[in-house]
Write a structure and sequence with these properties.
Layout lengths: L3 H20 L6 E5 L5 H9 L4 E4 L2 H7 L1 H8 L2 E4 L8 H7 L2 E5 L1 H8 L11 E7 L11 H9 L10 E5 L6 H22 L6 E3 L6 H6 L4 E4 L1 H4 L8
Parallel strand pairs: 1-2, 1-8, 2-3, 3-4, 4-5, 5-6, 6-7
Helix pairs in contact: 2-4
The protein binds pyridoxal-5'-phosphate.
């Protein structure tokens, strides 16, 4: 299947091609290398191959692996893309550069914080629960529209949206979801300011080209770069 460097290069090439086709102009999407369950040497391999953003799902795992020192020294952004628990908000805000899986509770708390000196995180995406799955985090599209209509003040904290589709969703369902989230994203950009709302994180190893076709400018790729995840690696 090739090395991490070869797979990353291939994904970047495919992603750029789709992006240029969809946007009708040069440029490239953000590629977030999803490093959950990957030990530090493999993460370093991806960084050496040019990865500039990584995504971690668990606070403790990221601390244990010590990804933060490595990433800081290499100028790599560390994004939190996992489920959030309120007892970990402060710790997450202290160590991550971005939280892509933010919900109203975190954003409201953030909005009420005057002194952000202890906080490192400065980019927040609102997670969209597009499949309306009760066990998933994030807000549904109707909930987000309602909050935007009510002009919820904490919405001004967000730089965009991250959508997680149901695991079993067919490509056709994914296309429908990506298209509707893209419409919502543009509504929010026009409501909240298009210089503020710029990031649309959708698409993973299985479907990033489809997501880019529907307007994604940030993809999150794990297995496509690192191969299948084995839970016991770290
Ligand atoms: C694990 C994970 C990914 C990566 O999925 P792959 O199928 O390995 O590319 C992307 N987004 C989130 C939120 C994840 O938890």
């Amino acid at each position: 299947m090739g090395s991490i460097a070869e797979r990353l290069a291939e994904i970047r090439e495919r992603a750029c091609l789709s992006y240029r086709r969809a946007a009708g102009q040069p440029g490239e999407p953000h590629i977030v290398c999803v490093t959950k369950n990957q030990p530090l040497p493999r993460i370093l391999e991806a960084i050496d191959a040019g990865a500039t953003e990584i995504g971690e799902n668990y606070l403790q795992e990221a601390i244990r692996k010590d990804v933060f020192a490595l990433c800081e020294s290499r100028g790599v952004t560390v994004r939190y893309i996992g489920r959030l628990q309120s007892n970990k908000y402060n710790a997450i805000l202290r160590v991550f550069d971005a939280v892509d899986s933010a919900g109203p509770e975190l954003l409201e708390r953030l909005h009420g914080t005057q002194d952000r000196g202890a906080q490192r995180a400065c980019t927040f995406l609102l997670e969209v629960n597009a499949g309306e799955e009760s066990q998933k985090g994030g807000l549904t599209m109707p909930q987000i529209r309602e909050l935007a209509a009510a002009d919820a003040p904490w919405l001004y904290e967000i730089s965009g949206l991250m959508v997680v589709v149901p695991l079993q969703a067919t490509m056709q369902i994914r296309a429908t979801i990506y298209q509707s989230v893209s419409v919502l994203f543009h509504e929010l950009a026009s409501d909240l300011g298009s210089s503020r709302v710029t990031l649309l994180s959708m698409g993973t190893s299985d479907d990033f080209e489809l997501a880019i076709e529907h307007g994604s400018n940030m993809i999150r790729v794990g297995t496509g770069i690192f191969g299948p995840r084995s839970p016991s690696q770290v």
